[in-house]
TrEMBL record:
This is SET domain-containing protein. One of its GO terms (molecular function) is protein-lysine N-methyltransferase activity. CDD domains: SET_SETD4. Residues 26-268 form the SET domain. The lineage of its organism: Eukaryota, Fungi, Dikarya, Ascomycota, Pezizomycotina. Pfam families: SET (PF00856). PROSITE patterns: SET. Gene3D superfamilies: set domain protein methyltransferase, domain 1. It comes from Cladonia borealis. Coiled coil: none annotated.
Length: 443
């Protein structure tokens, strides 16, 4: 169980401030939780179905809380970008929510935990000459290894594999940030992107989906508000129920909790790559974890005719690997190589009576052309990261050099993530093994 300790005076002040805003808090409070910053714990025995927190709509920070004149300056910006600009540069944040902001993580903590600030991507993209004086950011060439779903590229793969930088989670996030900063930096030309990035990440990691009555034109993913006190809850696969209506937000306990136990909510059915990129952490055990396999199932193992067939059948792309092995879409893609058209169609329809030989042929392609390649990538990434671990570096000078390149947390969390990926690969190797596989060559 995580270690829990008292939260500190600023969090007691926040609790008083939240109550003064009409927030109802029942039997729970903030506490320091080892490994996840602040969180919410039970202050008395909690039974299932109790209303723990209620935040009235009037206490939410929404686009409607922002003065009209300030909003009007930001024509075309996202809700995310506008909330961040308000918090960073409006000057009204102080009067609006200072006690709340005092409980948020610092920029230094974000530099440790958020991949967006590790990669150097932002400093290269926004400030190639280093004029802002921002000191953080690690050049793309620096030797630290993001999982392909995050970084969008394979470090050790043969050149035949597609490089998918544009689809990596981090690239998508950097583009979203870049578009918002593009607007904000024109309004506030003397501000530096680092100050904006801090609040952009505050909104990124602490906002909630909410339907404002006048937000019908806002894209779903951008319907966000900030919700005091409820933003203390940490994430788990399952947790307390969080609901909203026009009256505000309510959190209800999902089960009984003893005094001192942490209560969590679910931020969504996210894989660990998504959690790392969006929130800066991974779960040790994540029911919804998977890794994409799309880059690995392509030209190097199938003809363009196979690709066309898969597209026509609706089975091109979106291939995944989870603790249950590879998904059915992946099985279909592999069978497009190993079966004749008639049998392949039956396989898709679930009516193919597959022989051991045919299973083994599919297993051979999957193991050799997909899983083995991924295994090699994971093993090399792990070797590389192990070298980066500061405690393994012998001289002080080396320690300084390495430590200045890669935050220690980044190395540690990436090592954990790659080990999880390697475990998924090894598990799939077992699940998809067949008695005849070892003697077979791929067709
Ligand atoms: C909505 S805030 C929750 C409160 C936050 N822990 C704090 O200190 O203010 C989301 C952030 O909490 C942390 N977090 C949430 N769930 C976590 C978990 N299961 N393990 C580790 N960190 C977690 C991450 O830093 C994430 O970006």
């Amino acid at each position: 169980m995580a270690r829990v300790s008292p939260p500190g005076p600023e969090h007691e002040q926040l609790t008083r401030w939240a109550r003064s805003q009409g927030v109802k808090i029942n039997g729970v409070g903030p506490a320091k939780i080892s490994g996840s910053g602040l969180g919410i714990v039970a202050q008395r025995r909690i039974e299932a179905g109790e209303e723990l927190v209620n935040v009235p709509a009037s206490a939410l920070l929404t686009v409607n809380s922002i003065p009209r004149r300030f909003r009007a300056l930001h024509e075309g910006i996202t809700v995310h970008g506008l909330l961040a600009s308000f918090l960073a540069f409006s000057g009204s944040k102080k009067s609006y929510c200072d006690p709340w902001a005092a409980t948020w993580p610092s920029l230094t903590e974000f530099k440790e935990s958020m991949p967006l600030l590790w990669s150097g991507k932002l400093s290269q993209m926004l400030d190639p000459d280093g004029k802002s004086g921002a000191t953080h950011g690690y050049h793309e060439a620096s030797p630290f290894i993001l999982p392909p779903a995050i970084g969008g590229r394979w470090q050790h793969m043969p050149s035949l594999l597609r490089v998918s930088e544009d689809v990596g989670l981090l690239n998508q996030q950097a583009r979203k940030f870049g578009a918002d900063w593009n607007i904000v930096s024109r309004i506030f030309p003397d501000k530096v992107w680092e100050d904006y990035a801090y609040y952009w990440l505050i909104v990124n990691t602490r906002s909630f989906y909410f339907e404002l009555p006048d937000a019908t034109n806002t894209p779903q993913a951008d319907r966000m508000v900030m919700c005091p006190f409820v933003d203390y809850f940490n994430h788990n696969d399952h947790g307390c129920d969080v609901t909203f209506d026009q009256g505000g937000y309510t959190v209800i306990s999902d089960r009984a909790y003893d005094v001192g136990q942490e209560l969590q909510t679910s931020y969504g059915s996210h894989s660990n790559d998504v959690l790392l990129c969006e929130y800066g952490f991974i779960l040790q055990s994540n029911l919804y974890d998977y890794v994409p396999l799309d880059d690995l199932i392509g030209e190097h193992m199938m003809s363009s005719k196979d690709t066309e067939n898969l597209e026509a059948a609706g089975y091109l792309g979106n291939y995944t690997l989870s603790s249950e092995g590879v998904c059915f879409r992946t099985q279909v893609a592999i069978r497009s190589v190993t079966l004749n058209t008639q049998d392949w169609k039956k396989f898709m329809a679930g009516t193919f009576d597959e022989t051991e030989l045919s299973k083994s042929q599919a297993a051979a392609v999957l193991q050799r052309e997909v899983l083995k390649l991924y295994e090699k990538e994971a093993e090399e990434a792990l070797q590389h990261l192990a070298k980066e671990q500061v405690h393994e570096i012998s001289t002080r000078a080396e320690k300084r050099e390495i430590a200045s390149k890669i935050p220690q947390y980044a190395t540690e969390v990436l090592l954990r993530r790659w080990k999880q990926i390697l475990d998924l690969i090894h598990q799939a190797m077992k699940i998809h093994d067949t008695p005849y596989y070892h003697g077979l060559q791929p067709p």
